[in-house]
Amino acid sequence: MRIFLLAGFLTCAAVAQSITEPPPIVQLTRRPGTAGTSVKQYANAQAAINVLGMASVTGLPETWLVESHYSFASVEELDQRISALAPVRALNDAGDPLQDDALYPSRTMLALYRPNWSYRPDQAIRMFPRARYFQVSLYRIRPGTEAEFSELIRLRRATADVINLDRPDLAYQVISGAPAGTFVFLSPITSLRNFDDGVNSVPVFAEGLASAKAKDGNKIASETEISREHLLFRVEPRISYVSSEFADVDPDFWRGKSK
After folding, report:
1. I need a surface site. Which of 77, 218, 243, 255 has the fewest CB within 10 A?
2. Which residues of 91-126 are buried (b: 16+ CB within 10 A; e: fewer)?
3. Which of 229, 29, 227, 53 shows the shortest CA–CA distance to 135?
4. CA distance 185 to 129
């Protein structure tokens, strides 16, 4: 069964989507501003996916919708359903009462899961229903340097393991909607209080190894990265569209905000 969390609208529909495995495909929609975003299109299309709505805490004001897909057939089916329901309107008709956020300037990206670049992905996906924030890291690398970037990620993951960093993430490679060489890392955060604990100290026995990895990583980063951006988002139930299975993990948060 599915629960639609749409600022007070609650209904159900059948769905079969696991929340224990990272989705192999995500569609990310970035919308400037943090007001007026609606996900009624998903309810109207009876979409069988989970969609997380997030509002920016840092960076420019914007809203992200993160669709979880388990096949390209799912992407196509949802696109066709929403397209069939959307009325055709003139972009420059400001007086049209049907003008809404569906035509609000936005960027949509389609991205593929990179399991080998993800950090503790099984833990990350289980945290999604309990996440109150997400750290989103955006990387763009130079053409032909994917192997070097892969080594950079490996070094960073190894360092995180040495200090037992409790900050899992899921890595995705953008295949459409952004410049080539764009990668998105999604890290769920249950509370910002976690940052108060700081980063664990490197054990004495591993200081030399950590230092060497950091030096190697900095060198590779300078050779491969065009840009790097870290953004913090707050999860918003009112603009999310999730299944009852997803919401049941923390019903007070997901259902409480829809009353």
Report:
1. 218
2. eeeeeeeeeebeeeebeebbbebbeebbbbbeebbb
3. 229
4. 17
State whether residue 226 is helix, strand or coil.
Answer: strand
* Both structure tokens of 138: 């955006």
Predicted TM-score (pTM) of the model is 0.79
Pairing of strands 133-141, 182-189: antiparallel
> Mind listing the pLDDT tens digit of every residue in the chain (259 residues)?
444 444 333 333 334 445 789 999 999 999 998 766 678 899 999 999 999 999 999 999 999 999 999 999 999 999 999 989 876 444 444 443 333 444 446 899 999 999 999 999 999 999 999 999 999 999 999 999 999 899 888 888 887 776 666 789 999 999 999 999 999 999 999 999 877 765 544 443 334 444 544 555 566 777 888 899 999 999 999 999 999 999 999 999 998 744 3
Q: Cα–Cα distance between 180 and 173 in angstroms, integer? A: 9
Backbone CA torsion sign across 222, 227, 232, 238:
negative
Question: What angle do the packed helices 207-224 and 146-162 form, to 10 degrees?
Answer: 150
Tell the burial category of 88 from Cβ atoms under 10 Å away from its Cβ (0-12, 13-18, 19+).
exposed
Q: Are strands 170-176 and 240-243 parallel, antiparallel or unpaired?
A: unpaired
**Residue 30: its H or E element:** strand 25-32
